[in-house]
Design brief:
CATH architecture of the largest domain: 3-Layer(aba) Sandwich
Bound molecules: NADP nicotinamide-adenine-dinucleotide phosphate, guanosine-5'-diphosphate-alpha-D-mannose
Helix content: 25-40%
Order of helices and strands: EHEHEHEHHEHEEHEEEHEEHEEEHH
CATH topology of the largest domain: Rossmann fold
CATH class of the largest domain: Alpha Beta
Strand content: 15-25%
Number of domains: 2
Distance between the termini: 41 Å
Strand order of the largest sheet: 3-2-1-4-5-6-11
CATH superfamily of the largest domain: NAD(P)-binding Rossmann-like Domain
Number of helices: 11
């Protein structure tokens, strides 16, 4: 029976990875940050009997004393390092926090693996944000990086730290370069969750207007439940390597909003330009407006990944298509509004 540690277990991917590893018979340990409500985040969606099989360690990845003690006291076969300040928008306002958690926290974990559990395999949650102002399309494992946010820069530091430790100390360290993946358990501030929730509320009678930023940003959006399977497969290889996980398709925020309103039988049409652009429903009601506070100082305009290496080596392929993903997210909100 294998033992895994998941940092960031209380986030979106933490939920799906916990579920997957428990199904596979792993003993699962997870790090959860202490908060005043003793909230365990998305772990609350894991059913009670399964959750009882998860050993929670309350702590913060920036605390090296805590991390070292954890690794000294417990042996892990696999370490999935998902914990991060993961919101790109916030990273512009809080670059120091973002670097402390995403670089400093990552350094604490990699050093603990190196010092105490060098036989363990380690996964790092790298990201398509590292491609930023893209140098080629679609993006592969060989595409040069050009991050556009403190978040992207912090993840690039983690990515290179993993590569360097792999080369310097012969450790089984892998980077998953994952493109956007969403789900019903997506964090509240990400655009897909924000849109799905607002559209569900509007369809049930709310008179609110959905306020968004850049409608023309394009992302390669897949389903998170499938991406954790890719993470696990990377860790089952005989040699450590880096892999892109993506759908190979891209859609704009505008298309996401249109698709979400179609799910509730409220097709929209756009009118106006730039900050004055609005979306109307068939009865002439304005349901979407632009709020410049949601624009980023430097934007990642278009991301589209080439997952062929993961398909070839890992036998992994994204299955859920864009419209189905939007439907899953909107229907989840309709059931909970
Ligand atoms: P998420 O929902 O924001 O989860 C992040 C997790 O990290 C949460 O459990 C959070 O705890 C934890 N965390 C944050 N700061 C911490 C700290 N100082 N100490 C301990 N834990 C801390 O993110 P996600 O969507 O699951 O993504 C998982 C990882 O993949 C992240 O590293 C993200 O940057 C990366 N990634 C995500 C995507 C995507 O599209 N989802 C794509 C590429 C890469 P709280 O619950 O207390 O906040
Ligand atoms: N959040 C948000 N809110 N984004 C908006 C909004 C809005 O109201 N309006 C437009 N957008 C645009 C953003 O400017 C961005 O171009 C796009 O929608 C997606 O934004 P997010 O959903 O916040 O995700 P992200 O692409 O910046 O970052 C996510 O994906 C990365 C992988 O590429 C996060 O999960 C990162 O942690 C992950 O690394």
């Amino acid at each position: 029976m294998k033992t895994a540690l998941i940092t960031g277990i209380s986030g979106q991917d933490g939920y799906f990875l916990t579920t997957l590893l428990l199904q596979k018979g792993y003993v699962v340990h997870g790090i959860v940050r202490r908060n005043s409500q003793a909230s365990i985040g998305t772990l609350r969606y894991v059913d009670d009997t399964d959750r009882a099989r998860v050993q929670i360690h309350w702590g913060d990845v920036t605390d090296h004393v805590f991390i070292e003690r954890l690794f000294r006291e417990h042996d892990f076969d696999e370490v999935y390092h998902l914990a991060a300040q993961s919101f790109v928008g916030l990273s512009f306002d809080n670059p120091k926090l973002t670097y402390d958690v995403n670089i400093g926290g990552t350094l604490n974990v990699v050093n603990a693996v190196k010092e105490f559990r060098p036989k363990a395999k380690m996964y790092f949650a790298a990201t398509s944000e590292m491609f930023g102002k893209v140098h080629e399309t679609p993006q592969t494992e060989e595409t040069p990086f050009h991050p556009r946010s403190p978040y992207g820069i912090s993840k690039l530091a983690g990515f290179w730290t993993m590569k360097n430790y792999r080369e310097a100390y012969n450790l089984f360290f892998v980077n998953g370069i994952l493109f956007n993946h969403e789900s019903e358990h997506r964090g509240e501030e990400f655009v897909t969750k924000k849109v799905s929730k607002a559209v569900a509320r509007i369809s049930k009678g709310s008179d609110e207007v959905l306020m968004v930023g850049n409608l023309d940003a394009k992302r390669d959006w897949g389903y998170a439940g499938e991406y954790v399977e890719g993470m696990w497969r990377m860790m089952q290889q005989t040699e450590p390597d880096d892999y892109v996980l993506a759908t190979g398709t891209t859609h704009s925020v505008r298309e996401f909003i249109e698709s979400a309103f179609r799910c509730v039988n409220m097709p929209i049409t756009w009118s106006g330009n730039n900050l004055e652009e609005v979306a109307f429903t068939a009865d002439g009601r304005v349901v979407v407006r632009i709020d410049p506070t949601f624009f980023r100082p430097s934007e990642v305009d278009v991301l589209i990944g080439d997952p062929s290496k993961a398909e070839r080596v890992l036998g992994w392929k994204a299955r859920m298509r864009f419209d189905e993903l939007v439907r899953v997210m909107v229907e989840h909100e309709l059931a909970t509004v």
